[in-house]
Amino acid sequence: MRLQYRHPKLYHLLVHKLMYPKQIWEELRLEVGENNTIFDIAAGYGHAANFLHPSNAYYGIDINKHFVSYGCKKGGNLELKNIFDPAAYRPSDIFLAIDIVHHLSAEKSKELFNLVFQHAKKKVIIIDPAFVSIARKCGPLGAFLGWLFRVLDNDGFTTIDRWMSEREYRDLFQSRFGSVYGKDFEVTPQKIIGYHFVVFNRKAETLSET
Ligand SMILES: C[S@@+](CC[C@H](N)C(=O)[O-])C[C@H]1O[C@@H](n2cnc3c(N)ncnc32)[C@H](O)[C@@H]1O
What number is the average pLDDT over the span 161-172? Predict the structure, then answer.
Protein backbone atom coordinates (compact mmCIF):
# COMPACT_ATOMS: atom_id res chain seq x y z
CA MET A 1 0.00 0.00 0.00
CA ARG A 2 1.40 3.36 -1.06
CA LEU A 3 1.92 6.13 1.48
CA GLN A 4 -1.10 8.12 0.29
CA TYR A 5 -3.40 5.16 1.00
CA ARG A 6 -2.20 5.18 4.63
CA HIS A 7 -2.51 8.94 4.98
CA PRO A 8 -5.88 10.25 3.79
CA LYS A 9 -4.75 13.88 3.98
CA LEU A 10 -1.92 13.11 1.55
CA TYR A 11 -4.31 11.25 -0.74
CA HIS A 12 -6.65 14.23 -0.62
CA LEU A 13 -3.87 16.57 -1.69
CA LEU A 14 -2.39 14.36 -4.41
CA VAL A 15 -5.59 12.99 -5.90
CA HIS A 16 -8.58 15.12 -5.05
CA LYS A 17 -6.89 18.50 -5.06
CA LEU A 18 -4.43 17.99 -7.92
CA MET A 19 -6.05 15.50 -10.26
CA TYR A 20 -9.83 15.93 -10.14
CA PRO A 21 -11.36 18.83 -12.07
CA LYS A 22 -14.16 20.52 -10.15
CA GLN A 23 -16.54 20.00 -13.10
CA ILE A 24 -16.69 16.30 -12.16
CA TRP A 25 -18.14 17.10 -8.75
CA GLU A 26 -20.54 19.66 -10.18
CA GLU A 27 -21.84 17.07 -12.64
CA LEU A 28 -22.10 14.50 -9.84
CA ARG A 29 -24.20 16.84 -7.72
CA LEU A 30 -26.56 17.46 -10.65
CA GLU A 31 -26.80 13.79 -11.62
CA VAL A 32 -27.53 12.65 -8.05
CA GLY A 33 -30.17 15.28 -7.47
CA GLU A 34 -32.09 15.41 -4.20
CA ASN A 35 -33.76 13.12 -1.66
CA ASN A 36 -32.07 9.90 -2.72
CA THR A 37 -30.36 7.14 -0.78
CA ILE A 38 -26.75 6.89 -1.95
CA PHE A 39 -24.49 3.84 -1.69
CA ASP A 40 -20.84 4.63 -2.49
CA ILE A 41 -18.73 1.51 -3.13
CA ALA A 42 -14.98 1.71 -2.45
CA ALA A 43 -15.81 5.12 -1.05
CA GLY A 44 -12.39 5.90 0.41
CA TYR A 45 -13.03 8.50 3.10
CA GLY A 46 -16.34 9.53 1.53
CA HIS A 47 -15.08 12.54 -0.40
CA ALA A 48 -18.01 12.41 -2.85
CA ALA A 49 -20.48 13.11 -0.03
CA ASN A 50 -19.16 16.69 0.24
CA PHE A 51 -20.62 17.55 -3.15
CA LEU A 52 -24.10 16.07 -2.84
CA HIS A 53 -27.25 17.97 -1.95
CA PRO A 54 -27.79 17.61 1.83
CA SER A 55 -31.25 16.06 1.35
CA ASN A 56 -29.56 12.85 0.14
CA ALA A 57 -28.77 10.06 2.63
CA TYR A 58 -25.17 9.05 1.95
CA TYR A 59 -23.55 5.75 2.95
CA GLY A 60 -20.18 4.40 1.82
CA ILE A 61 -18.09 1.27 2.28
CA ASP A 62 -14.35 0.75 1.92
CA ILE A 63 -11.83 -1.84 3.06
CA ASN A 64 -9.10 0.66 4.00
CA LYS A 65 -9.27 1.27 7.76
CA HIS A 66 -7.23 4.50 7.55
CA PHE A 67 -9.69 6.00 5.07
CA VAL A 68 -12.83 4.79 6.84
CA SER A 69 -11.80 6.01 10.27
CA TYR A 70 -10.67 9.39 8.87
CA GLY A 71 -13.96 9.75 6.98
CA CYS A 72 -16.01 8.81 10.08
CA LYS A 73 -14.11 11.32 12.22
CA LYS A 74 -15.08 13.99 9.70
CA GLY A 75 -18.72 13.03 10.14
CA GLY A 76 -19.09 10.67 7.16
CA ASN A 77 -21.45 7.70 7.22
CA LEU A 78 -18.95 4.99 6.31
CA GLU A 79 -18.28 1.39 7.24
CA LEU A 80 -15.29 -0.92 6.87
CA LYS A 81 -16.63 -3.50 4.43
CA ASN A 82 -15.60 -5.49 1.41
CA ILE A 83 -17.33 -4.54 -1.84
CA PHE A 84 -17.36 -8.22 -2.88
CA ASP A 85 -19.32 -9.30 0.19
CA PRO A 86 -23.01 -9.60 -0.83
CA ALA A 87 -24.01 -9.08 2.83
CA ALA A 88 -22.54 -5.57 2.69
CA TYR A 89 -25.20 -4.45 0.21
CA ARG A 90 -28.63 -2.94 0.69
CA PRO A 91 -31.01 -1.57 -1.92
CA SER A 92 -30.36 2.13 -2.51
CA ASP A 93 -31.54 4.66 -5.09
CA ILE A 94 -28.13 5.53 -6.49
CA PHE A 95 -24.83 3.66 -6.44
CA LEU A 96 -21.51 5.47 -6.94
CA ALA A 97 -18.34 3.74 -8.15
CA ILE A 98 -15.61 6.35 -8.23
CA ASP A 99 -12.05 5.52 -9.19
CA ILE A 100 -12.44 1.76 -8.70
CA VAL A 101 -13.16 0.23 -12.14
CA HIS A 102 -9.55 0.44 -13.36
CA HIS A 103 -8.41 -1.43 -10.23
CA LEU A 104 -10.35 -4.55 -11.23
CA SER A 105 -10.00 -7.39 -13.72
CA ALA A 106 -12.92 -8.04 -16.11
CA GLU A 107 -13.95 -10.99 -13.93
CA LYS A 108 -13.96 -8.98 -10.70
CA SER A 109 -15.85 -6.11 -12.41
CA LYS A 110 -18.55 -8.52 -13.46
CA GLU A 111 -18.81 -9.90 -9.92
CA LEU A 112 -18.96 -6.39 -8.47
CA PHE A 113 -21.49 -4.97 -10.92
CA ASN A 114 -23.75 -8.00 -10.53
CA LEU A 115 -24.12 -6.85 -6.92
CA VAL A 116 -24.40 -3.18 -7.79
CA PHE A 117 -27.00 -3.54 -10.56
CA GLN A 118 -29.04 -5.89 -8.38
CA HIS A 119 -29.25 -3.33 -5.58
CA ALA A 120 -29.53 -0.06 -7.53
CA LYS A 121 -33.12 1.18 -7.55
CA LYS A 122 -32.61 4.13 -9.91
CA LYS A 123 -29.09 4.58 -11.23
CA VAL A 124 -25.41 3.76 -11.07
CA ILE A 125 -22.80 6.46 -11.63
CA ILE A 126 -19.24 5.57 -12.55
CA ILE A 127 -16.30 7.95 -12.57
CA ASP A 128 -12.96 6.59 -13.73
CA PRO A 129 -9.80 8.16 -15.15
CA ALA A 130 -9.78 8.12 -18.96
CA PHE A 131 -6.32 9.66 -19.25
CA VAL A 132 -4.72 6.37 -18.13
CA SER A 133 -5.43 4.93 -21.60
CA ILE A 134 -2.33 6.83 -22.70
CA ALA A 135 -0.43 3.86 -21.27
CA ARG A 136 -1.79 1.82 -24.21
CA LYS A 137 -0.83 4.32 -26.89
CA CYS A 138 2.54 5.97 -26.77
CA GLY A 139 5.10 3.15 -27.10
CA PRO A 140 7.87 3.20 -24.48
CA LEU A 141 6.60 6.48 -22.97
CA GLY A 142 3.14 4.93 -22.55
CA ALA A 143 4.68 1.82 -20.99
CA PHE A 144 6.63 4.00 -18.55
CA LEU A 145 3.54 6.02 -17.62
CA GLY A 146 1.59 2.79 -17.17
CA TRP A 147 4.23 1.54 -14.75
CA LEU A 148 4.20 4.87 -12.90
CA PHE A 149 0.39 4.95 -12.61
CA ARG A 150 0.47 1.39 -11.28
CA VAL A 151 3.05 2.23 -8.64
CA LEU A 152 1.21 5.39 -7.53
CA ASP A 153 -2.21 3.74 -7.52
CA ASN A 154 -1.28 0.70 -5.43
CA ASP A 155 -4.05 0.68 -2.80
CA GLY A 156 -2.82 -2.53 -1.14
CA PHE A 157 -6.04 -4.42 -1.87
CA THR A 158 -6.18 -4.62 -5.65
CA THR A 159 -3.61 -5.30 -8.35
CA ILE A 160 -3.80 -3.31 -11.57
CA ASP A 161 -2.63 -5.80 -14.21
CA ARG A 162 -3.10 -3.59 -17.23
CA TRP A 163 -4.58 -0.29 -18.35
CA MET A 164 -7.63 -0.37 -20.57
CA SER A 165 -7.70 1.29 -23.96
CA GLU A 166 -10.47 3.76 -24.79
CA ARG A 167 -12.20 1.03 -26.78
CA GLU A 168 -12.00 -1.50 -23.94
CA TYR A 169 -13.56 1.03 -21.57
CA ARG A 170 -16.34 1.70 -24.09
CA ASP A 171 -17.01 -2.01 -24.57
CA LEU A 172 -17.02 -2.60 -20.83
CA PHE A 173 -19.61 0.14 -20.26
CA GLN A 174 -21.76 -0.94 -23.23
CA SER A 175 -21.70 -4.57 -22.07
CA ARG A 176 -22.64 -3.45 -18.53
CA PHE A 177 -19.47 -5.22 -17.32
CA GLY A 178 -20.95 -8.51 -18.55
CA SER A 179 -23.55 -8.43 -15.77
CA VAL A 180 -26.93 -10.01 -16.54
CA TYR A 181 -28.55 -7.51 -14.17
CA GLY A 182 -27.10 -4.68 -16.27
CA LYS A 183 -29.62 -5.29 -19.04
CA ASP A 184 -32.20 -3.44 -16.92
CA PHE A 185 -30.21 -0.20 -17.32
CA GLU A 186 -29.68 2.32 -20.15
CA VAL A 187 -26.11 3.54 -20.39
CA THR A 188 -25.05 7.15 -21.04
CA PRO A 189 -21.27 7.44 -21.33
CA GLN A 190 -19.55 10.80 -21.44
CA LYS A 191 -16.14 12.22 -20.75
CA ILE A 192 -15.36 15.20 -18.55
CA ILE A 193 -11.81 16.56 -18.79
CA GLY A 194 -9.92 13.27 -18.81
CA TYR A 195 -12.44 11.24 -16.80
CA HIS A 196 -15.17 8.83 -17.80
CA PHE A 197 -18.47 9.91 -16.28
CA VAL A 198 -20.93 7.13 -17.03
CA VAL A 199 -24.53 6.94 -15.91
CA PHE A 200 -26.64 3.78 -15.96
CA ASN A 201 -30.34 4.60 -15.53
CA ARG A 202 -32.75 1.84 -14.58
CA LYS A 203 -35.31 1.25 -17.34
CA ALA A 204 -38.79 2.36 -16.30
CA GLU A 205 -40.35 -1.09 -16.82
CA THR A 206 -37.96 -2.65 -14.25
CA LEU A 207 -38.35 0.01 -11.55
CA SER A 208 -40.33 -2.23 -9.22
CA GLU A 209 -37.81 -5.09 -9.28
CA THR A 210 -35.57 -3.89 -6.44
C1 LIG B 1 -8.54 4.94 -5.93
S2 LIG B 1 -9.35 4.71 -4.39
C3 LIG B 1 -10.90 5.58 -4.66
C4 LIG B 1 -11.58 5.97 -3.38
C5 LIG B 1 -12.84 6.83 -3.53
N6 LIG B 1 -13.85 6.21 -4.36
C7 LIG B 1 -12.50 8.20 -4.02
O8 LIG B 1 -12.77 8.49 -5.19
O9 LIG B 1 -11.95 8.97 -3.24
C10 LIG B 1 -9.85 3.00 -4.48
C11 LIG B 1 -10.47 2.52 -3.21
O12 LIG B 1 -10.94 1.20 -3.37
C13 LIG B 1 -10.87 0.57 -2.12
N14 LIG B 1 -11.01 -0.88 -2.27
C15 LIG B 1 -10.22 -1.71 -3.01
N16 LIG B 1 -10.66 -2.98 -2.89
C17 LIG B 1 -11.75 -2.95 -2.06
C18 LIG B 1 -12.62 -3.94 -1.56
N19 LIG B 1 -12.47 -5.24 -1.87
N20 LIG B 1 -13.63 -3.56 -0.73
C21 LIG B 1 -13.79 -2.25 -0.39
N22 LIG B 1 -12.99 -1.26 -0.85
C23 LIG B 1 -11.98 -1.60 -1.67
C24 LIG B 1 -9.51 1.00 -1.60
O25 LIG B 1 -9.38 0.82 -0.22
C26 LIG B 1 -9.51 2.48 -2.03
O27 LIG B 1 -9.98 3.31 -1.00
Answer: 92
